[in-house]
């Protein structure tokens, strides 16, 4: 009898705990190959983010997460093949050259990844494709609606799902099929100088962070502190590990329920679940709308009244706008790869409303820098704020002066992150970067302007 060879394509599920799909792979094939396709800056991302590569903090967190996963697989006599190939090419090569018979992959929220799966299904029909949700609270069959009928607002979604019973996390995988003999794939070395960082990537670090968080009383105070701008204790900080799938939301939910059983439930502990539901909504939103997630006009295809000014975008990225709170947040992002949720709302509102810029440039820059980048949450939230997504009230504009008074009244955050930018103004150039503000010594008459 011919042996079955499985290919487990890791995406944003970099863990062995609560990974039912990996558990299924361990039971259904005779041999197994575990691969990860290292991400590259796509032409689309380069065009909009206007940077040549991912931020160093983002890359370091990913590399640490992959290294941790590889150690976990090594303990099961397996290893992670990190390949420098686009997913379709890697999977097609494995099917054609290595005899792969089964492909296991998360029910991904990214449209590019799902396109690769769909293409394989058509072009390599002898490969059985097994997809299921491994980074969501609910599975498709447990939702009280089909995907095409996804509620058009978060509130409607929450009311339909928040009382649903959740299945418990599954135990960690303890055995895996062996590698095929003579396996040869071009793999990448992830050796890189490790720099001081806010977060350490990987499943082990994520689980330890959760244990420490729920060993404290922070969860009982979360709703009061969650809008902070700086520090490690004002919010849960689960998002980097959730984004890479080092932690599953079910694991966090189970820890939360144990905390509530021991310490009591209140508005703050509920709000942690509320935030997990927001992430959940955007996961299904991305699966529902696919490439519409990146469309200027959003899911309704109604383009906002914004444009693109290259100089303003550079000011925003570098934290050199006339708005100190925005500058401080952007400096924080550029240095650490992280920004508070409140900060993200403020800088996004500034980009869209004060600067009049196409929201996709901001979303793409976030994608290039954030250690906790998640395609669904990032692009869904940007659509929401720009008024082209799931918010029925239209775009959200924040009063930056009032927000500063509320969240940084003594300018401590602004001063720590050097948010004051003397002489900053928006109108130094027009939309094609011609100078329109000049010093007294070089003023030109209207007839002299190009």
UniProtKB/TrEMBL annotation:
Entry annotated with the keyword Flavoprotein: yes
Cofactor(s) recorded in Swiss-Prot or TrEMBL: (6R)-5,10-methylene-5,6,7,8-tetrahydrofolate; FAD
Stated name of the protein: Cryptochrome DASH
Gene name of the record: cry
Residue span, Photolyase/cryptochrome alpha/beta domain: 4-137
Keywords attached to this entry: Chromophore, FAD, Flavoprotein
Purpose of the protein: May have a photoreceptor function.
NCBIfam families the record matches: crypto_DASH (TIGR02765)
Species of the source: Vibrio hyugaensis
Cofactor note: Binds 1 5,10-methenyltetrahydrofolate (MTHF) per subunit.
